[in-house]
Amino acid sequence: MALAAPALRRYLLLLAQEHLEFRLPEITSLLSLCGGQFSGEQEIRVNSPFWILNIPSEEMARGLMKRTVCAKSVFELWGHGRSAGELYASLKNYPVDKMLPYLQSGSTYKVHIHTFNKTLTQAQKIKKIDALEFLPFKGKVNLKNPQHIFWILEDYGVNPNNVPEEPNHLYFGRWIADGQRELIESYSVKKRHFIGNTSMDACLSFIMANHGRVKPNDVVYDPFVGTGGLLISSAHFGAYVCGTDIDYNTIHGLGKASRKNQKWRGPDENIRANLRQYGLEKYYLDALVADSSRPIWRKGMLFDAIITDPPYGIREAPRRMGSQKETVKSVERSTENHFFVSSSYHLSDIFFDLLKFAAEHLVMGGRLVYWLPIYRPEYTEEIIPRHPCLKLISNCEQIFSSHTSRRLITMEKVKEFKDQDENSYLLDGQYMPYRGHNSFREKYFSGVTKRIAKEEKDNQK
C-alpha cells in the first residue's frame, strides 16, 4: 500500500518589492531544490508582497529561507481575512492543538505588527495586539529575547497615492525564519576588490544562482566569466566554480583598472582574490583564457549549472578568435608578449553556441541561466533561442528603458545530447527570428540618441 503524502501546511511569505518578475521562478526553483513542489493552488498575487504557500514541513520552509534573496520572512499562517472580523474568525477556527506548543505557561513570546504601505502609531499597534486577547496565550511577554514571535501583517495595497483607511487583507502567523537579504549588502560590488564595467549586481547574482538551483558540491561554469561576480554567488552556496573569457587581461588581473582615480589593477584584483575576499577560495577551480565559440572541454556532461552574462555590445564588445587571414586592424595587444586576433561575434551566434554547449556539457537536470538583450518594440517569445535538449523554465524581464531590456532565461537539460542535435536549430526554420539580436547595439544607441535629442528639445522650450 502506498504511503500517504504528508499533509501540506500553510505558510505566509513576505517578499521584497523589487525584481517582481524574478520572485516566482526563484521560489519555485528553491522549493524543488528542497524536495517540494510548487502547487497550482497556491494563493499568489504576483505584485503583492504577501503570498500564501502550501509547504509540506517547517523544515522545508526553513530550507527555502536559507537561500532566497527575494523573500524577507516566512510565517506559519494561523489566520487571515479581508477584515479584522474575518481574521479573528479564521484564528478561532485554527486547530488549538497546533497553537498550544507555542503558548505554554513556561514560554515567552512577543507580537510584532508589520504594515505594508501604511504607518501606524504606537497606540494603534497596541490596540490591534490587545484585540487578540481571545487567543490562549499562557506564557510571558518578552520583547527582547522571546522564544516565539507572532506577527500581525496588514496589506494596504501597492499604490502609495491611494492608501485605504482599512487594510485590504490581514494575516496572523508564527515567525519561522528570515531570508538572505543581508547578502545583497555583504556582497555589494561597491566593496569588492576586483570589478569591471559589467560586474553583476549582488542581488541579481544570487537570484541567478537560485534560478540555477546551485547546491553544495555542484560544478558551476561561466563561459563569459569577466571578473567572476557570478562565480561568487554560486561558491557562497557551496559549489565549485570555474570560468573562461577571451580577455587575457581580465583573466589575469592585468591592465587598466575599472575604479575611478586608479590607473592600473593591483595584485589583489583578480578572480581568485575576489573569492578569497569572501572566504570562498576553496571553491575556486580556475579561470582560463578561451574563446566560447571554440570550446576547449572534452565531450561529455561536466557541469551541474552554467550561469553567465554574455556580452551584448553595450559596455563590452562580443568577440571571438579570428584567423590570421583577417585584417591586421583586428590584432589586439593583451600583454607585452601576448597577442590575439579577434573578429566580430554576432549575438545570435553567441546564444546558439551557448545553448549547444549547455546541451552537450550539462548533466541531466542541470540548468543554464543567462541574460538575453531585448529590443522591446520587436519582442515576441519566438525570439527566445531554443534547443531540443533544453526546456525553457522561466523568462523574466529587467527593463532598461522604454525600448530596451534584458531577460533572464532559465533552461533545464531534459534530453541527452546526440551528435545530430549539434545544429538542430538550423533544420526547423527557427533560426531567422533570433537574428534580430545582432542589431541590438544599433537599436540601443539609436534609442539613446533619440532620448538625448528629445531632452535637449524639451530644455529649450
UniProtKB/TrEMBL annotation:
The keyword Transmembrane does not apply. Keywords: Cytoplasm, Methyltransferase, RNA-binding, S-adenosyl-L-methionine, Transferase, tRNA processing, tRNA-binding. GO terms for molecular function: tRNA (guanine(10)-N2)-methyltransferase activity; tRNA binding. GO terms for biological process: methylation; tRNA processing. It is found in: Cytoplasm. It catalyses: guanosine(10) in tRNA + S-adenosyl-L-methionine = N(2)-methylguanosine(10) in tRNA + S-adenosyl-L-homocysteine + H(+). Pfam families: Tmrp11_N, UPF0020. Its main location: cytoplasm. It is an enzyme of class 2 (transferase). The keyword RNA-binding applies. Its EC number is 2.1.1.214. Residues 191-317 form the Ribosomal RNA large subunit methyltransferase K/L-like methyltransferase domain. GO terms for cellular component: cytoplasm; tRNA methyltransferase complex. Residues 10-181 form the tRNA (guanine(10)-N(2))-methyltransferase TRMT11 N-terminal domain. Catalytic subunit of the TRMT11-TRM112 methyltransferase complex, that specifically mediates the S-adenosyl-L-methionine-dependent N(2)-methylation of guanosine nucleotide at position 10 (m2G10) in tRNAs. This is one of the major tRNA (guanine-N(2))-methyltransferases. PANTHER family: RNA METHYLASE-RELATED, TRNA (GUANINE(10)-N2)-METHYLTRANSFERASE HOMOLOG. Belongs to the class I-like SAM-binding methyltransferase superfamily. TRM11 methyltransferase family. Part of the heterodimeric TRMT11-TRM112 methyltransferase complex; this complex forms an active tRNA methyltransferase, where TRMT112 acts as an activator of the catalytic subunit TRMT11. This is tRNA (guanine(10)-N(2))-methyltransferase TRMT11. It comes from Pardalotus punctatus.
